[in-house]
Amino acid sequence: MIEPKITDDLVEAHGLKPDEYRRILDILGRTPTFTELGIFSAMWNEHCSYKSSKKWLRTLPTQGARVICGPGENAGVVDIGDGQVVVFKMESHNHPSYIEPHQGAATGVGGILRDVFTMGARPIAAMNSLSFGRPEHPRTRSLVSGVVAGIGGYGNAFGVPTIGGEVRFHRAYDGNCLVNAFAAGIANADAVFYSAASGVRMPVVYLGAKTGRDGVGGATMASAEFDDSIEEKRPTVQVGDPFTEKRLLEACLELMASGAVISIQDMGAAGLTCSAVEMGDKGRLGIRLNLDRVPVRESQMTAYEMMLSESQERMLMVLRPEKEGAARAIFAKWDLDFAVVGETIAEDRFVIVHGGEVKADLPLAALSGTAPEYDRPHRPTPAPQPLDDVPAIDPIEGLKALIGSPNYASKHWVWEQYDHMVLADTVRAPGMGPGVVRVHGTSKLLAFTSDVTPRYVAADPVEGGRQAVAEAWRNLMAVGATPLAATDNLNFGNPEKPQVMGQLVGAIRGVGEACRALDMPIVSGNVSLYNETDGSAILPTPTIGAVGLLASADELIGAVPQAGDAVLVIGATAGHLGQSALLAEAFGREDGPPPPVDLDAELRAGHFLHGQRASIRAATDLSDGGLALAAFEMAQAGGIGVEIEVEDIPTLFGEDQGRYLVATADPEALLAAGRAEGVAVALVGRFGRSVVRFGSVEAPLEALSRLYLTAFEAAVADLAPRSGAA
């Protein structure tokens, strides 16, 4: 094949700015080959290099008493005692999922699972955070259907329970949905594997499925805005096979146990290029690859295609030479490819040979360690105007506006398509707050949650960043877990726009402040930028995934009340309605400031809840929809009514932070403890009967439940609404 001539148009098509290309010329002292241009493009794009966000990511707290490995590896590693660790991360697959929903979402799940088991951990749980455009938008139904089917199809076949997540709808996502995937696994603390290569002339081994042309240029595509050429990007979406991934998991874990692995890296974004460069750079070694040895499934593949393919279910490993025979036998048993495709070298070079010709010869460190880093201009988001008067509304009608919206209706239509019981260790299924799973063979439980309120972040990025962390922390506390650490998935628009960069900078500041105050460090994560279509950006969406630990099931706080239980609110209520769910769903308004986050108050309320767990039958945090929505959801879970002795709209629907709703048979004990410890505790009602009553107005629980259980499917599904469990 005759390689194309390097022109300005070709450089631009690879997502490289003129000054970046000049930097490449300075590094090489010559014009790059076509393959070299592709390699630079892959390694220097936003998706792989974090060139717009690195400056700010360094400000996040990443260390803690339990943190074994923070950001920089495939996933974070956190100590859970007894010689065990939890390994977890969240990543985006936004652009691929908008272009091809099923495969985009499926391969997002596959990629995050590989990030976990390449560290030596067996996956035990998955979550997802999904953001779509308006239900009435012509693409939304197909996106929802395809994404949910892709997540379920991959996770179910692979055999990992999907135990939590969130789904939201907003016009800002009409042209760019978000698919954020989370996975967690368990490993022995002395058997965690890292990606840094070591040793000179060590074999570099290709593992897993064959390489095809799917996904070529995927990382570069994910670092650009969408426009009317979106359909042309379809070939950049990868195609996944969960059954191959399951075999790859078992083969890799068996290989690791054999002592053959020096280092290992999954082939994700930018495929063979990124995995080889990262392994070499972290080990301060060079890499020489012979592409003639790479297993391929298509004929006449070029070096460019092979280096940039994002075919799924592949790994790259540095192998102990004396273990090659045993390692090869393991992969033969699992019917997977095993090929020695190169070696480590002492020189700082990345050498690619194909067909007996050198297709690339680059300084390896320049591809990673000296990638561009920008301090982009950023403009702080203007302070929101004070909230105007909120129109009067019947409290029951306000509740109906929430539970009749796909944003706050039951999501059972979604999670019923996911296998959340596989592995038989799920303790709390989706739909009841954080997912909770047993650590197999032990008494320990792990709780998982994913949280962000994008309209808060849009109104005030710093406060919104704080709130995303605080809500994740509060969700874990509400089930009795001790929060351990977090992963972040920072989804924003074009960072070259100062107002968007200002959102990113502000949100990271808020996230960092909350993580420090709540002792919940960020140990892994992902940044997804350029989430725009025709210049219209998504809402800033810094998703926080968090993990908490319970020593045993005895520490678990329930989610289901009983008839006769009192309803109490822990934490102070001021009735903050700015940027509230009630405003958005009942009045179509998104105005006013978001609720302020008092991190000291968060700590006091959360620790009070844990200290009083013996008196608490069920608990949930208060967030979107305030007291009204939380009381209804808890009543719905128990199949009993609830009567709240107030009908003041700010008190019912206010979204003041640092609060919990609890059900208890002994309200006096909690009230007395609150007085003694200086924590606000208020008795607001009781569970029982078969109605939902706010003050003097009420409605039958059955009618409200019917609306809650059918509204989501009615809004987004192609089939007629059907009933189902909440």
Strand residue content: 15-25%
Query: Strands of the largest sheet, in order across it?
Result: 8-10-7-11-9-12-13
CATH class of the largest domain: Alpha Beta
Q: Are there runs of 5+ residues with pLDDT below 50, and where?
A: 719-726
Please, how many domains? 3
Shape: globular
C-alpha Rg (nearest Å): 26 Å
Largest sheet: 7 strands, mixed
CATH T-level topology of the largest domain: 60s Ribosomal Protein L30, Chain: A
Secondary-structure content class: alpha+beta
How many individual β-strands?
28
Helix count, DSSP H or I runs of 4 or more residues: 25
Any overview of this molecule?
The protein folds into three domains: about 65-190 and about 410-555, 2-Layer Sandwich (60s Ribosomal Protein L30, Chain: A); about 195-370, Phosphoribosyl-aminoimidazole Synthetase, Chain A, domain 2 (Alpha-Beta Complex); about 555-715, PurM-like C-terminal domain (Phosphoribosyl-aminoimidazole Synthetase, Chain A, domain 2, Alpha-Beta Complex), CATH 3.90.650. Helices cover about 35% and strands about 25% of the residues. A seven-stranded mixed sheet has the order 8-10-7-11-9-12-13. A seven-stranded mixed sheet has the order 23-25-22-26-24-27-28. The chain starts with 7 loop residues before the first helix and ends in a 10-residue tail after the last helix. Residues about 720-725 have low confidence and may be disordered.
List key phrases describing it.
726 residues; alpha+beta; 60s Ribosomal Protein L30, Chain: A; Phosphoribosyl-aminoimidazole Synthetase, Chain A, domain 2; globular
